[in-house]
Design goal:
The structure is a single chain. This protein is mostly helical. Helix content is 60%, strand content 0%. The longest helix has 33 residues. Pfam families: PPR_2.
Amino acid sequence: MIRSTAHSAYILRKCLNQLIAVRETLPSRSVSTLRVDSASKPKVPILPKNPKRGKPSLFLHPSGKHPKSHAKPIRGELKKPLRPHVFSKRLLALCKADKIEEAVSTLQNAPLDAQNTIVWNTLIREVLLRKRFKLGYQLYVDMKRRGFSPRTSTFVTMLNQYATIEQWSQHTKQLDNVHTLFENYIDHVEQVKEHEPNSPELDNSVYVPYFKILGDAGEYQKMFDIYYAMPDHGPLAPTHFTFTALINAISCRKPASNGAEALAEVRAQNASDVRLLWRQAIKHSERNPQFQIDSHFMAPVLGVLALGRPADQLFAFDIIRDFTGLAKPGEDAKPARVPLTPYVLTEVLWLCTCSKKYRLAIYYFWQAVESMSPEDIARPHFDNMLRAHVGLTMMGASQQSHRAVETLERMLREAATRPNCENWRPSLSTFTLALATCWREGDWVSATTIFELMTGYKAEDFADGGDNGPRVESPQMEKRSKGRNIMPGMTAMSHLVRTALASCDQSNMRQCLRIVDHLDVTQLMTSDKPKSNLQGKEAILAYDVKDSLYFVTKLAKDLITLVDEVVQRDVQPNLSAEEARWREMRNTAKKLLRRHSGSTRTPFYESQLLGTERSLAATDSAVEQEQTVRRTQRSATFVKRDLRMGPGSF
């Protein structure tokens, strides 16, 4: 018994000495320490109170130095968990490196504490951005299977990417998935409303891409059913973004069959739906101060109504009067409730063109120039205004070519002198529209002025020699900055040749033939090269409008007539070198006509001069009917007011 007790004491004493030895090799940073002999302690360097870099380590190496940064961690030390936002960045890096499959595998095998709905949303968005819609929907299903509930941002993210699909006939399975997503969204917001009525999850942004998808897929009845199922109040009520999405979807509706009647029927239906939505949007704006009628909503409304019936166009003009601040001649302009943006101005001018109110288009345009900032007025607006001048020449108005020249000169002057008017500079389409105003009036002087402004050539260099001196043999182009010398296209040359013919002056005709010969137009008319292979002047003179075939054949016919007016047929041996070239131009044009002997589509401004009597009578009847309805409603209002006030009120 005594021996075992002594042995136990020996073992205990030995263990105590080992503990003391280990303790002496570690720094003492605690108040409570083992009391050992101070003589046996190793000397440990004292750390400075304010080290220059970093903080002193809690553990020191036995040598008294700080452990190196690459030292191995102590066994048993816990690793920090992977945070979701750090994990999202890693997934984004993999997606940017086009390692989608690796990113998907990484997410599926990641620990649960690194995953959340936002991480899954990130990968789903990147997958859908790369048009992998099937994989994106599979990730959505996998996310729910793992217990992560989708949020409103999940549905918005997915439907925004699905909305980039245009041909839904090729993605029928994905369209079913889209409908399932929207149904899941409805279930989600219903659950949120029960537990937290003021939650930010109650957001109706999902409707905007979903309405676009339904419009592209042609499911308009379902789109209206969903719209009418929306609440009138609360965070899920329609907003101006919702109405804008509806209008844009309606504007893309196409007829089921080809033909003018089917197209007119669809346009009338579109205009009727838009008028209804506009009235409902006005009611929502009166109930909800945050609901604002903006330019992005108004522009497509005017665009759809412009293609409707005369009554629809009249309704659009009322919108312009009440909201944009523009007024007709003789009307007092109302305060603008919606800023007149470039998009709205474009639709206003388009409405005037469709309704054949050309003078009103010009009047509105110059009102806008005075009220809008110069940088908001661009060249396409001038093009639309010049189309109105062309329309007036169709209706028999005069002096339109002079006004077109004045417009071009102002555009060039403002673009050269004002830095914020660079977007006023005319282009090929602008000069072509200006030339279109000349040929109906036979105004050769204005046509040559436009030609000079356009190309940099002097028109008098192509004229006959006279009192001012002999004719210039090789006309020279004025050197301008890059892109400022614009060569006329086939349409512009057609207008120029027709203007020379309409002037009934042979000197003008010869001047025109010299221009055609110098620009080598006949060779480009017969060129079989694709547009992409044309270089230099050929590219500039290439067919510049969608009705190019019509204008090429029209140019060939007028060129034959022009040569026949100038060069006599019975003096073939006595032709000058210049007249011989003109004869060769005539032969080339004749060959071109044989090649394109079929019928071509006639552009609007070439076929309808004044419109048929039937169409004009129908327009007058529709407008008169609308005015009668308004007068009747106004009279009924006055009668009700008089009855309410009584006979002794006056």
